[in-house]
Design brief:
One of its GO terms (cellular component) is plasma membrane. Its main location: membrane. It is found in: Cell inner membrane. It is a multi-pass membrane protein. This is HAAAP family serine/threonine permease. This protein is mostly helical. The protein has a single domain, classed as Amino acid/polyamine transporter I (Up-down Bundle). Helix 6 runs antiparallel to helix 16, helix 13 runs antiparallel to helix 14 and helix 16 runs antiparallel to helix 17. The longest helix has 37 residues. The radius of gyration is 21 Å and the shape is globular.
Length: 415
Amino acid sequence: MNQTIDISSKSVSHRWTQHDTHWALSLFGTAVGAGILFLPINLGMGGFWPLLIMAVLAFPMTFMAHRGLARFVLSSRHKDADFTDVVAEHFGSQAGRLISVLYFLSIFPILLIYGVGLTNTVDSFLVNQLGWASPNRVMLSGVLVAGMIAIMMGGERLMLRAFAAMVYPLVAILAFLSFYLIPSWQAPNLAMPAMGELGMNLWLAVPVVIFSFSHAAAISSFANIQRRHYGDDAQGKSEQILKRAGVMLVAFVLLFVFSCVLTLTPAQMAEAKAQNVSVLSYLANVTQNPFIGTLGPLVAFIAITSSFLGHFLGARESLNGLVTKHSTLTYKKADKLGVIVMFFAIWWCAVINPSILDMMGALSGPVIAMILFIMPTVAAYKVKALAQYRGKAGTYFIFVTGMLAISALLYNLIG
């Protein structure tokens, strides 16, 4: 009988379902935000060799880090524990409260940035591509933010369908643009830079790669749903989904990055950086190609919307956990209150269009790096359920990567 159970469990773990496909697409959509349009510029400025090295490291950094966070969430003794519950269980109530607050504050500014970015993208498209007069910003931002939140309020099935509807076109457009640029490719400069310069470029590129592929905001909800869906097989299925999402993410994004980098020179990348425009906007300007200029806003709209949904998932869950643990509100009342508060906060920011949002996003970076890389490593040596991962090469790799990311982010902030 035991052998039959083992075989059945193994078959469930390896059978790929539509549920798994939808979640792989959801994680992909959460990671691919508007930052993808600036990623070729940020990576390409350092030259070809740092880009090639970071391309090799992109998948292990992405997969191992998110796998570690999913394992951490699934390590709880309680079957319905979310991120805030697990942190309090393993690190105590006071430390758990602090980490949970920091986790929420690391995600929420990104939602504010996306609210502003989506409003600006749609407004620009209506004015520049369609020739309309600029619409009332209060009405436009309110409709856009309300529409995105309505998708999340429609439940898991509607959310997953929305992700699928957005991610397929996004993947198709990224692949098409990547191949479309091939005739414009130029031979890269293969001269090896000095070791000091190479090391500096690699060090500063670590956080760029991490946050361009990060879907940490959705991992807690993702892991919990897999536990409800697959029971004891949740960890195996979570890792399988994360692996496929990571492969798809790295493959399509790096294809786009390499295609853009081979089309533009490092000097042109630096010029695009100075102009603070996306790579598609810069390509449209230097090539006078209206086709690329038209696709740019479409890619930005789809990328921002899909990433907004994934980050809203994480912010909503963490805020609900904090409110229910430190008030007398029930989960349903806390959820309704949290959604209302976040809606008005995102709407307000989208209306006033503040420039401080870039600084808020930069400040959230170190916290995300600590939660995604450092905390699961520390938990491996503190939590009995994670003891099997102590001393593993992957555990050390993630810890070192996290420390490099945090130090590079602090260096950029101070510098």
